[in-house]
Design brief:
mainly alpha; two-stranded antiparallel ribbon; 76% helix; globular
Length: 480
């Protein structure tokens, strides 16, 4: 069958160019990453504080709904992985799906916040449908295709590492500047629990996804896919699953990713509540900014420091050492979770420790995919990436659901919007609710960080990866 035709990539050449790095991997992803980052922190706040759904079904709705929805999302991730593996175009197997995501994400992003001011039943139905349209379809398509851009861009270890850094710099810029600085300091005090203001703001963010994702499409290139060719046979999912489940490096990396994502998911879900009700006061415009920005300063430094360290000492080794610091920073926060100075010191140390994980994971994941290809003779990109996406999906749903249930059972009281004055009134939470926010924001990641240190000791895939990549290349040349 003749491959489908799509607009050609503007990233030409056998090697990664400047425009590809800056436009395809740094600026292009910012639209979707921004929307996803804002939703990760604030969508649950919209549900609990603006729509006041905490008490629906005796508190069970906001626990059950995210978890069930994420199970659906997990299934669509697996399906999307198989669809990508079976996609045959001159522009690659993952990149064309960026075009689909560029259209779907803005539409479904807006639908998340157009919940009608109707009965509780109508609102619940709208929330369920819009949430699944966004996460199970639109966001899944983007995340799956975007996640494969680095592994499929090139086999050159140095170039792949640089792209991994650029890719994560985009995420750091979004989370460290807009979500961590502008939103809590400027946007959230303006929004309060005003539905119209929420809808306008989130609609603008959703629309921004379209032009930037198109930029990502045009300035990325799947050199690995081009090397293999469009005639590559697709191995049955059962065979691929058997391969990756019996590959210890992949199993270790998946377990590593699960623990890290669970810890981060609970921390991100609890961030706003912890800053509003434990460390500071409701939407004070400074507490969340201080926590996120002071703690996030190391992420900017990491742009220059992490990759040279990873090249010298190894990606695994630098990441392992980082998580030791991560645990130390978390312990410092736990010593005085209501003391701003202590928490900021702890957050600063945590984020220094988190630098390697943030910047080199994509490159480490790509090494594992190449190792699998060297070992069995074919790639499992779609399935391996879809399982990673499933892990993220389940972790996010579980963290939101468990946090919401704990909030409901501990007696969380949502803020009120005063129509006459346009003000939002936040309430002081009881001790049990404050303890919930403290554990999930500063306590749980101490445990996950120590477990990650143990797992990383066995993840030494880099030891022979360059020889394996050279052998893969020799096989391809011999086959041609």
């Amino acid at each position: 069958m003749k491959p489908l035709s799509f607009p050609a990539s503007r990233a030409a050449g056998a090697h990664v160019g400047k425009k590809e790095k800056w436009l395809g991997y740094l600026i292009g992803p910012c639209g979707a990453l921004l929307l996803n980052a804002v939703l990760a922190v604030y969508l649950n706040v919209f549900y609990t504080d603006v729509l006041k759904l905490t008490g629906v079904w005796g508190g069970a709705f906001l626990m059950v709904f995210p978890i069930v929805s994420k199970i659906i999302d997990a299934i669509t991730n697996i399906l999307m992985g198989q669809i990508i593996d079976r996609t045959r175009t001159k522009e690659g197997k993952a990149r064309p799906w960026l075009l689909v995501a560029a259209i779907l994400m803005p539409i479904t992003g807006i639908l998340l916040f157009t919940v009608p001011a109707a009965s509780e039943t109508v609102q619940v139905i709208w929330v369920i449908l819009s949430f699944n349209l966004y996460y199970s379809i639109a966001s899944t398509i983007y995340n799956m295709s975007h996640a494969l851009m680095v592994p499929l861009s090139t086999r050159e270890t140095k170039e792949r590492g640089i792209l991994s850094v650029f890719n994560n710099v985009a995420s750091v810029m979004i989370s460290g500047i807009i979500v961590a600085l502008i939103f809590p300091m400027v946007i959230m005090p303006m929004l309060g629990v005003n539905r119209s203001a929420w809808l306008l703001t989130m609609s603008l963010l959703s629309i921004l996804v379209l032009p930037l994702t198109l930029l990502e499409y045009f300035y990325t290139k799947e050199r690995v896919t081009e090397e293999i060719g469009t005639s590559e046979s697709v191995h049955p999912i059962k065979e691929q699953l058997h391969v990756i489940l019996h590959e210890r490096y992949w199993v270790l990396l998946a377990l590593y990713f699960l623990l890290y994502t669970l810890g981060s998911g609970f921390k991100n879900s609890a961030l706003v509540y912890y800053c509003n009700y434990v460390l500071g006061t409701y939407n004070d415009g400074i507490t969340q900014t201080m926590v996120s920005v002071i703690g996030g300063i190391p992420m900017g430094i990491g742009i220059f420091a992490v990759w040279p360290l990873a090249k010298k000492f190894g990606k695994r080794n630098v990441t392992l050492a980082g998580f030791i610091l991560y645990a130390i920073g978390g312990i410092i926060c736990c010593l005085a979770p209501k003391n701003m100075t202590i928490v900021l010191i702890g957050q600063f140390i945590k984020n220094i420790g988190g630098l390697p994980c943030a910047y080199v994971f994509a490159a480490l994941f790509a090494d594992v995919l190449d190792h699998i290809e060297w070992k069995v003779g074919f790639r499992c990109d779609g399935l391996a990436t879809s399982i990673n996406s499933v892990i993220t999906t389940i972790a996010v749903g579980l963290s939101s659901g468990v946090l919401n249930l704990c909030m409901s059972f501990s007696g969380y009281k949502a803020p009120d919007f005063i129509e006459a004055t346009g003000e939002t009134i936040g309430y002081v939470q009881n001790a049990a609710t404050q303890n919930v926010f403290t554990f999930f924001f500063v306590g749980l990641e101490v445990i996950t960080a120590l477990l990650l240190v143990f797992i990383l000791r066995f993840l030494n895939v880099e030891k022979h990866i360059e020889e394996e990549q050279a052998e893969i290349k020799a096989r391809k040349e011999k086959g041609n």
